[in-house]
């Protein structure tokens, strides 16, 4: 399957949204479709939200054929570890960030035609890199050969798995091709810079966090300036109890819902407080200490794998 991500996304593949979720602006603005094995995610128009807009797609390990990111700034797509495929194509167009980590492939094609960042860290036999925009392309883990076509003001950074990897191609415009090891014979034209040896190349670290459908249990002591609150959960994500102090202008309240999700919220005159939320996909704390705490994925009908 190929995945195409457009501007301003929100989709959680394999999760059946509740009626309340579907009333959110994101669910009325986001569209998805599948045609000829390609999943496309996009928006009907502009979408303004104060919440992080996230996409989570689950696939069998051998079924990912390609990822295409078509986006404006601020959009990040992460393809995480576990995939083992014969061939893979990753394309970035626009100014977003596309990161692929821990993937195994016999052959790989990276295409970066925009101003954003495209990075791959994994295990690959042979790779092809086409970088023609103004963005940066990182590639690490190739074991046999790399063919590079760089143009415009593109930057290509290569970290082969060994010194025996053959690096060929061209660098035109004012592009640059740098590498840490290997046998580089990339030719330069115009103001292009080819085969620049680098002591080290570090791809940007992009981390993915699952923060929806969490089951929280334990005791938590949260404090602000002059006030404190102790909140405990009985587990299961459905029952919380709390006590509060208003010594520093702080107040805390707790509520639970019948569908297995709970929310603890706070308000404070001095801006402090704590928020523990499992139903809306957030889990954040301020000035809290936990004792005997346990955090697990909550299992219910709203969280399932998609094939």
From TrEMBL:
<feature type="signal peptide">
    <location>
        <begin position="1"/>
        <end position="20"/>
    </location>
</feature>
<dbReference type="Pfam" id="PF10988">
    <property type="entry name" value="DUF2807"/>
</dbReference>
<feature type="region of interest" description="Disordered">
    <location>
        <begin position="229"/>
        <end position="281"/>
    </location>
</feature>
<protein>
    <recommendedName>
        <fullName>Putative auto-transporter adhesin head GIN domain-containing protein</fullName>
    </recommendedName>
</protein>
<dbReference type="InterPro" id="IPR021255">
    <property type="entry name" value="DUF2807"/>
</dbReference>
<feature type="domain" description="Putative auto-transporter adhesin head GIN">
    <location>
        <begin position="28"/>
        <end position="168"/>
    </location>
</feature>
<keyword id="KW-0732">Signal</keyword>
<feature type="compositionally biased region" description="Low complexity">
    <location>
        <begin position="229"/>
        <end position="268"/>
    </location>
</feature>
